[in-house]
Amino acid sequence: MPSIDSLRKLIGTPRDGALLRYSLGVEYARAGDLARAVIELREALARDPGYSAAWKVLGKTLEQSFAALRSALERVLAAPAAAAD
């Protein structure tokens, strides 16, 4: 599997297209950088709105992002109660 660094070197070259941005999105998601994954997947879809694999991974990534946000909000809301604030 190509590394994020090797894929990023292709940005701005003739190989920069939907497939490259999709691949970057997948690799960022695997690395846990969900925000960057969403950016790259949306870029892939801007280049090819019919790219069904990109839509699928974007949906899963947004779902993971939402779950992480929900978990963080639950911790924030529970913190004052635990500290008796």
Protein architecture, described:
The structure is a single chain. By secondary structure, the protein is an all-alpha fold. The protein has a single domain (4-83), classed as Tetratricopeptide repeat domain (Serine Threonine Protein Phosphatase 5, Tetratricopeptide repeat, Alpha Horseshoe), CATH 1.25.40.10. The protein contains four helices and no strands. The protein has helices spanning 4-8, 18-31, 34-47, 52-83. Helix 2 packs antiparallel against helix 3 and helix 3 runs antiparallel to helix 4 (52-83). It is elongated and about 60 Å long. The termini are far apart. The model has no long low-confidence stretch (mean pLDDT 92).
Keyword list:
4 helices, 85 residues, mainly alpha, 76% helix, Serine Threonine Protein Phosphatase 5, Tetratricopeptide repeat
Present the secondary structure layout.
Layout: H1 4-8, H2 18-31, H3 34-47, H4 52-83
In short:
The chain is mainly α and 85 residues long. 76% of the residues lie in helices and 0% in strands. The protein has 4 helices and no strands.
Largest sheet: none
Element-level helix/strand string: HHHH
Mean pLDDT over the residues = 92
- Helices, by number, come to 4
Structural class: mainly alpha
Beta-strand content bin:
under 5%
The CATH topology turns out to be Serine Threonine Protein Phosphatase 5, Tetratricopeptide repeat
**What Rg is obtained from the alpha carbons, in whole angstroms?**
17 Å
Low-confidence stretches: none
**Number of spatially distinct domains:** 1
- Kindly state the number of beta strands: 0
User: Please, what is the CATH homologous superfamily?
Assistant: Tetratricopeptide repeat domain
